Every structure is written in structure tokens, then in C-alpha cells.
Amino acid sequence: GPPVMSPIVAEVYGPDYNLLITLGTAVLCLMTERQPSWKNSTALGLVLGLALLTKQSAVIFLPAITFLGVLAAVRRQMTWRTAICHLALSVGLATVMFLPWLLRNWRLYHTFTPEYTTTPLLTWPSLPYGVASAVHNLAKTFWSVSGMTNDIGYPFPLLGFGALLVWFVGHQQPAPATGTTEGLNAKANGPLAAALLLAFGFNLLLVLRFGYLFGMGQGRHLFPLLLPVSLWLAAGWRKLPVPGLALWTTAFWILYALGFAMFSLSRFP
Question: How far apart are CA 165 and CA 159, in angstroms?
């Protein structure tokens, strides 16, 4: 049966995601290297290995890293042999670091991903209903959730949904006439943007699958890619023709975070 969680374990449950966000951001920074080097590939493998040991959710970076290596070979930025060697170094090193934990799972649970051992499968009235519920729970908890026993509901997620609406409207606007900063979709950043979209799509499918099977597909499972998600949102907001938009946006989210933190703390005994 499921293990009994002591108060001490329950209190410290969750810092792994904070560490995964940090390590995931480090992986993304290393992926921005446009002139691959053996030093960078080694560092990428080490950081990815640490991320996998922190949370197996870091597996979402593997398709993105592989995509960048293959794309570099296709665009003849390096030979296929060199690209394969760089991928083998990064992915192989991360796999070697993660292998002891995988073998432990296999020895204890006879599976590499023991997600079925502690959580029962859900039964939905229909497939569309289950998928819709998983999507709604993912969107809601991405914007406001606080701990296992303090799942904050509405109205806080409505502000996040409003932010998504602003992002959508912003992306319908023409690009600003001024400014020299390369956007996330600029030609120079196209390969990285495509790799991040691939990682996000893979991550999204895994979270929705987890939510459909177990009802636990929360927004925090998207946090390894919190940095690119923030960049995508900001890229949409900055297109809005609003004077002082950066100042008002920053002030709004500071007040939102402060209000949510105070509200969350008030809910704990």
C-alpha cells in the first residue's frame, strides 16, 4: 500500500521542484551555446544528470538536446560523427549518473518508473471528460497551488487565465518598430525555440497523461520549463501598445505573489 507520510516528511515535501527549476534553467543556459564544445557538452551531461536525480521529470530535456544535435548536423554546422559524439557525451553522462536510481527502482518495484505502486488509477465516466478534467486541473494549478494539503482554488487562477488572454491578444499585434533585442522567434534563436517547444509539448503530454491516469497532473510538473514559459508570456505582453507596460506588469505580479503568499500562510494552522 501507499507509504505513510510523517509530518516531517510532509513539511519538507516539495523542495525538489525548486532545485529542478534551478537545474533546468542551467540546462537551458547550456543549450544556448551556439558553438558546441566538449567542455559545454560535459557540463550539460553533468547538470542534466543532477536534474534527473532530483526529479525524473527532467527527462523532458532529452528530446530537446537530441533535436539540437541532429539539427546542427542537418544544417551542416558540424559533421554527423561530431554531433553524435557530442550527444553521446551529454546524454550518456547523464544516463550513467541516473542509472543507479533506475536500477534501484527496478530492484524494488520491477519497473523503472514506479508511478503505479502508490497511486490507484482513476476511472472517468468518459475519455473526453477525463481529458477535460486533466486540462482544467493543469491550467488551474499552474497559477495557484500551495502544498499537498493547501490546494488553492479560485479566484486566484482567474488572474492567470487573464494573463494567458493578454498573451494571446499580444501575439496578434504587429512586432514593435523599435528595439534591437532578438526575440525568441528570431532567426538566430529559431533552433533553440523549436527545441524548447518540443520539450514543452513532450512535458505537456506527460503531465496530461499523469493527470488522466492518477488525477495528479498539476501545473508544478511544468516548472522545469518555467523560464521559457515566462519568456513566451513576456514576448506576447511586450507587443501590447500600453505606455509603461513593463512597470505595471512587474507591479501586478509582485502584488499577486505577495497576496497569494499571505493567503496561503493564512490557510495553514
Answer: 10
Query: What sign results for the dihedral spanned by CA atoms 198, 102, 145, 246?
Result: negative
**What is the predicted pLDDT for the residue at 162?**
86
| Residue the block writes with cell 522545469 | 224
Q: Each residue of 101-159: pLDDT tens digit?
A: 999 989 988 888 877 777 788 889 999 999 999 999 998 888 887 666 566 777 888 88
Cell of 97: 549518473
Helix locations, the chain, DSSP H: 7-12, 15-31, 38-54, 61-74, 80-109, 127-143, 156-171, 190-214, 226-237, 245-267
The Cα–Cα gap between 190 and 184 comes to 7
How far, in Å, CA of 61 to CA of 64, rounded?
A: 5
Report the alpha-carbon distance of residue 268 to residue 52 in Å, rounded.
Answer: 31
In single-letter form, the type of residue at position 82 comes to: T
Q: Do 222 and 135 form a contact (C-beta atoms < 8 A)?
A: no
Which set of grid coordinates corresponds to residue 75? 544544417
Which amino acid belongs to residue 219? G
Give CA separation, 202 vs 54, 59, 159, 168, in Å: 19, 10, 26, 22
- The answer to whether 30 and 40 have CB atoms below 8 angstroms apart is yes
CB atoms within 10 A of CB 72: 20
**Other Cβ atoms within 10 Å of 196 Cβ, number:** 24
Residue 45 near residue 90 (C-beta atoms within 8 A): yes
Cβ count near 23 (within 10 Å):
22
